[in-house]
Design brief:
Helix content is about 25%, strand content about 15%. The chain has about 240 residues and is of the alpha/beta class. The chain has an 8-stranded mixed β-sheet, sandwiched between helices. The longest helix is centred in the N-terminal third of the chain and has 19 residues. About 45% of the residues are buried.
């Protein structure tokens, strides 16, 4: 793990911004399937420019779904603990994309993360499963299939997130999370952003600004939804 301003070809797993009078809550970023730290570079760099002093990326290994979601969640738990210890912060914020959002949700619900996380921002996560989970036969993909044992268990929790403030960002046109509405989470502050391609969610300025807003808005209820005209029948 290195600390530096994000530049060029080598993307650090930790990005630090110059100190400010009021330090923001440290942020842990979690990537999706087949991704790595470079995928989250635009988000990490944007947060650093916005004044977030401690932004850390956890690289899930393996990143191809060869391990179950529960195993990957242990890596998120370890990274969150390391970030808390390094910064001295009681809580961290978690921003996660695609499979990483489901991994992070498991951390919150099953590994006591809800006691250590202030805000959770899910970007295009397969919370109700995705039909693309049938394209692979490995454990992580099976966990992401609609109706999987893991998804049924998480959905059955009556108070899944404790006092964690939860936000979801998703595109009604997502062709990786099918159906796209699987990215919704009950009780979350939600914003739909019409991005055509799943990977572009991490490069779209509206998404990046929404993440910053979700992490800095004084009250979650002030995070207002956007109005999107959906195709007939919805996503």
């Amino acid at each position: 793990m290195t600390s530096a301003s994000a530049r060029a070809s080598a993307i650090p797993s930790t990005v630090s911004a110059p100190g400010e009078a009021s330090r923001r809550v440290p942020v842990l970023l979690v990537h999706g399937i087949d991704d790595d730290a470079r995928t989250l570079a635009p988000l990490a760099e944007g947060l650093a420019r916005a004044g977030f002093q401690d932004v850390q990326i956890v690289e899930l290994k393996p990143n191809n779904g060869a391990e179950p979601i529960s195993v990957l969640a242990e890596q998120v738990a370890k990274a969150a603990g390391s970030l808390r210890a390094r910064t001295g912060s009681a809580r961290v914020d978690v921003v996660a994309f695609s499979m990483g959002a489901l991994v992070s949700r498991y951390y919150l619900q099953r590994l006591e993360g809800r006691n250590l996380v202030r805000r959770f921002v899910s970007i295009s996560g397969p919370h109700a499963g995705t039909l693309t989970g049938w394209l692979r036969a490995n454990p992580g993909a099976r966990d992401m299939r609609p109706g999987s044992e893991l998804l049924r268990g998480l959905a059955a929790d009556e108070a899944p997130f404790g006092d964690v403030q939860v936000f979801t960002l998703w595109s009604p046109f997502d062709l990786m999370i099918i159906p796209a509405r699987s990215s919704k989470l009950a009780g979350a502050r939600e914003r739909t952003i019409p991005v055509i391609l799943h990977p572009l969610m991490l490069r779209d300025g509206r998404v990046l600004r929404s993440v910053e807003e979700a992490l800095t808005v004084e009250r979650p209820e002030d995070f207002l939804p956007t109005r999107v005209v959906l195709p007939p029948g919805g996503p």
